Amino acid sequence: MGSAVTDAHGHGQAQAIGHGHDEHGPAKGVRRWLYATNHKDIGTMYLVFSCLMFFIGGSMALVIRSELFTPGLQFVAPNVFNQMTTMHALVMVFGAVMPAFVGLANWMIPMMIGAPDMALPRMNNWSFWILPVAFSILLSTLFMPGGAPAGGWTMYPPLVLQTGDAFPFLIFSVHLMGLSSIMGAINVIVTIINMRTAEMSLLKMPMFVWTWLITAYLLIAVMPVLAGAVTMLLTDQFFGTSFFLAAGGGDPVMFQHIFWFFGHPEVYIMILPAFGVVSEIIPTFARKPLFGHDSMVYAASSIAFLSFIVWAHHMFTVGMPLTGQLFFMFATMLIAVPTGVKVFNWTATMWKGAMTFETPMLFSLAFLFLFTIGGFSGLMLAVVSSDIQYHDSYFVVAHFHYVLVPGSIFGIMAAVYYWLPKWTGHMYNERLGQVHFWLSAIFVNVTFFPMHFLGLAGMPRRIPDYSTQFTDFNSIASIGAIGFGISQFLFIYIVVQCVRKQGAKASAAVWENPKGLEWTVPSPAPYHTFNEPPHVTAGAAFS
Amino acid sequence: MSTRSSSRSQIRRTALVLAAVALLFYLGFILLGVLRS
């Protein structure tokens, strides 16, 4: 593997890196970050920003869980509670999970396909710097008269139109987030289509690159739809239109259709890159090639296609014709087929493998088990007759948190542990990493598993108070949430320790015979990775 | 598949096509709203 890459003249990679007109290092001081065009710098900024948002969104979750620790109103007024649920979701979805994956894409895609950088580096800079502006605007609404948006992240009219001064700020910030995502997605697609090294055909691309390519197409298709929906909300509020106002002949249910046409693919935008990460990690630590690489590509593509035709399963209780219910129910269940292919392939990759359980592998295995639990509860919710019972209950909260926390967020953490030595040139503290894993894995289940029971027992979501029979499971969930939140400071400590080069020096390959071009360059990866397009030998091919 | 020698125009063309698709989705869904309301 180590000799898989040679430049066009047959020289080793290390030699190729040393040449070229742009072997200079980064700019000094704040200019390095403000005017950044290097994919690694921009990737780092995305990851740091995402981490900050993770803690801000997490602190909102702790306000929610503190309030729900016991019945009655303890800490916050009901309106503030509603602001917390709304802002927690917006911050976590658009500020934490999505930017984290864009950060990973920025860092890794050029290195994995043998490109010198992203195709559109200046636009890359814009994509990032729009985000802090968008979230400053959104978070500033917490201090406005009337407070932050409180009608839920889904922004359903007519409720959202009752938002006070925060409303136009919400709409503007959502537009900015969408713009940033679309520009990032364009950059990813253009880079992958145009800048792959010679010999890397599409089916030879690593799974992380493949899943990101599919994700980027999803982003291009659905972020403008969200933007269109909130533009119409804006004109309904301020310009006298009646897109969603029944009194003016509009249809509030249409907003739900449009929103979920965006919203369901959005779920896959947050999980497909995690599929890619896990597909990189499991083969490395099972010491076997990924089982069924090509079928993984087709499965991810099928999931992306199906994500466009299932949106109304979020709206079964709104009312729709029986044929509509049946269509959306069966289409939703169909997603289990390609997802099953993926779970089978990951399991088959591990079958008879010489497995070791370093931190990235532990997070990937937890992902595999716990995401599957989220998938199963999703199947239960797909059944119309059951969904009418579960709708807007804590069962739904349990379901999507199993998909997003041990799914997306564990995927991000696995990726950070896996590639951190490549980024910093030093190993992280493995023992602390494993402690972090076990604390996270235990507390995530303590937090979210009881929510299944709460939902089945009838506790509705988005309420600050509840009947006393729900007390025990709520208290357990709150203890789990506090434990999970505190555990994440250990993650920060481990990462900072590694960035400050306190661990052992990492080799170029870092792990035992990992696959892919990124492992052929030195650790830390040079500021400018490939001055000559590398060749992909049989050892580095994925298909 | 192409290599690093891809011309800038190829990159620009791909980016513009994707931006046009995004714009089309944005305007298309607003048009859907106009036609429905």
Question: Mind explaining what this structure looks like?
Answer:
The complex is a heterodimer of chains A (543) and B (37). Chain A is built from 16 helices and no strands. Chain A starts with 12 loop residues before the first helix and ends in a 44-residue tail after the last helix. Chain A has 543 residues and is an all-alpha fold. The longest helix of chain A is centred in the first third of the chain and has 36 residues. Chain A is globular and about 65 Å long. Chain B is mainly alpha-helical. Chain B is 78% helix and 0% strand. Chain B contains 1 helix and no strands. Chain B is rod-shaped, with a radius of gyration of 16 Å. The N and C termini of chain B lie far apart (45 Å). The mean pLDDT of chain B is 86. At the A-B interface, α6 and α7 of A face α1 of B.
- Termini separation of chain B comes to 45 Å
The pair of chains with the biggest contact is: A-B, 43 and 26 residues
Portion in strands of chain B: under 5%
Counted by DSSP, the helix tally of chain A is: 16
- Tell me about the biggest sheet of chain A? none
Q: What's the helix-strand series of chain A?
A: HHHHHHHHHHHHHHHH
Given helix and strand content, the structural type of chain B is mainly alpha
Distance between the termini of chain A: 15 Å
TL;DR of this structure?
The complex is a heterodimer of chains A (543) and B (37). Chain A is mainly α and 543 residues long.
Question: Key terms for this structure?
Answer:
heterodimer, A: 543 residues, mainly alpha, B: mainly alpha, 1 helix
Write the topology of this structure.
The complex is a heterodimer of chains A (543) and B (37).
Chain A lengths: L12 H6 L11 H5 L4 H29 L10 H36 L7 H20 L25 H29 L12 H32 L13 H35 L6 H14 L15 H13 L1 H15 L8 H24 L1 H7 L3 H31 L5 H27 L14 H29 L44
Chain B lengths: L7 H29 L1
